[in-house]
Amino acid sequence: MAMNVSRNDRCFASINVTPMADVMIVLLIIFMVMTPIIGGDRVRLPPAANSRRSSEEQGALVLQLDEHGTLSIDGRDVGPFEPALGQVRELTGADPERSVWLKADREVPSAWVTTLLGACRSSQVDHIGLATDRSGGH
């Protein structure tokens, strides 16, 4: 706390907020760095020896299917994938030119993935990408 003395011998108390601002900036930086690490994907992608990095996910409709069968569309959980197939068909049918990016957990039965791909193809989507783990699953 600082004090300013004026000509009239009046004291004005003021709080120095610089240390508080410094602490808040440090906390902001810590949270910005830690959020992606803690949040992470729930999905462990299947390994692929010949995977390549793709920028096609930008602007694509991202379907994420975890090992329990929970489907997320563009990061928003929509529930079990079979009841959510109608939403997938609706979203892909609204814009068949938009590409679809499918991220399925490595423990997901292939029949579930085939069902999702069929739902996208029934909406005339031509560009469907399957995400894989570039590191080979390690």
What is the CATH top level name of the largest domain? Alpha Beta
Parts with pLDDT < 50 across at least 5 consecutive residues: none
Shape: elongated
CATH topology of the largest domain: Nucleotidyltransferase, domain 5
What's the end-to-end separation, in Å?
54 Å
The proportion of strand residues reads: 15-25%
Question: Please, could you describe this protein's structure?
Answer:
The chain has 138 residues and is an alpha/beta fold. It folds into 2 domains: 2-39, no CATH class; 61-130, Nucleotidyltransferase, domain 5, CATH 3.30.420. The chain contains 3 helices and 7 strands. It has helices spanning 18-39, 81-94, 110-122; strands at residues 2-5, 11-14, 61-65, 70-73, 76-80, 100-104, 128-130. Strands 5-4-3-6-7 form a 5-stranded mixed β-sheet, covered by helices on one side. A two-stranded antiparallel ribbon has the order 1-2. A hairpin with a 4-residue loop joins strand 3 (61-65) and strand 4 (70-73). The model has no long low-confidence stretch (mean pLDDT 80).
